Amino acid sequence: MGLATFKGGIHPPDKKTLAANSPITEAKPPKIVVLPLSQHAGAPCKPVVTIGQEVKKGEMIGEPGGFVSAPVHASVSGKVVAISEFPNAMGRMVNSIVIENDLKEEWTALKDAPDYMNLPVEELKEKIKAAGIVGLGGAAFPTAVKLSPPKEKPIDVVIINGAECEPYLTADYRLMIEKPKEIVEGLKILMKVLGVTKGFVGIENNKPDAVAKMSEAAKGEAGITVMALEVKYPQGAEKMLIKAIAGREVPARGLPMDVGAVVQNVGTALAIYEAARYGKPLIERVVTVTGEGIKEPKNLMARVGAKISDLIDECGGLKDDVAKVVAGGPMMGFALSSLDVPVTKGTSGILVLPEEGVVHAEDYGPCIRCGRCIDICAMGLMPSMLSILSEKGLYEEAKAYNLFDCFECGSCAFVCPSKRPIVQLVRLAKSMVKP
């Protein structure tokens, strides 16, 4: 019997050996942090501090701006020196709070709750919401919202995403190796909050030591199963993971809750445990700094708001032939125009690529109708038509080809012999029409 997987997908070189054996190390406290008030899906936060105010580490500085939102907390202690718009990794200007670190590392009051599993469900949900936890796999959707499905959408399975199918990135892998018990505790909290008895951890089979560590941590835990998955990109996408593990198809334009599932990243599970146990807000995360263009690839526990340049300096700096620095991985990441942008809750990696092998935007050609992108599309779409229609400005026509079912995994662009920027053209079309 083969390993669990889905139809379609590709097999890009995983390049994980660059950083896989680098244990998680604490990054140096940054001198300045820039904390965007919109680093999650949904409404931006509203500032609750003023310029000149002294704040402590873990103190809330931005309150949620709506139901789909998440608070933002100070990742250092110090003085608020600016509240203004600053660019994020995608080049957008975002209202942000700048704090000058006093290097005292003074925490706001945290409350240990060793009996967290005995707390009422509503209290656990409030702890998760107050901690500002979002999906750490990249989507950054507020976790408290995922844990509040409508009554007509009952949940019966929770899946922890340990696939980490994006090439180069090893942050989740290191967490599973170093903190497996805490991740399992996070899963147990999720299962309690959602009232389910079935929990899964899905891990690609190229991480056998992570499968072993997580299996040992889950041993004896009722209803929890660790599953090895086929190594195939985009195995870690929510809909693919649900198909591989639960055998359920999320409908077009649908959500995991439509088939009774909730999916959370391993980093999110750890953050949930730390919030429930210690009341710790989400002010830091593991970031893989890797690629052939960085001198010392590492997995760093980095503060939210630290500059990308700070993390690169901590890894020995850039090599001489660097062509691109990407926030995220090579398939779904964004090329950075500046290294002064901040780490956010959704920053899973910093990828530094040398000139050799990098495809530049002007190098692409016309679609030759080969059909490769259609064959490998995990969503069963026609990426070639989406890109052609977008290129011609026929954005409304692209909707007829299920434009919004594309989750921009990049598989189509990877196999395209004409090196067409299919994902960028899809994003353009999405930005020009209403869902």
TrEMBL record:
UniProt record, GO biological process: electron transport chain
Domain 4Fe-4S ferredoxin-type per the UniProt entry, residue ranges: 357-388
Record EC number: 7.-.-.-
GO cellular component: plasma membrane
Cofactor binding summary note: Binds 2 [4Fe-4S] clusters per subunit.
Pfam family, one: Complex1_51K
Protein name: Ion-translocating oxidoreductase complex subunit C
Organism this protein belongs to: Candidatus Sulfobium mesophilum
Gene: rnfC
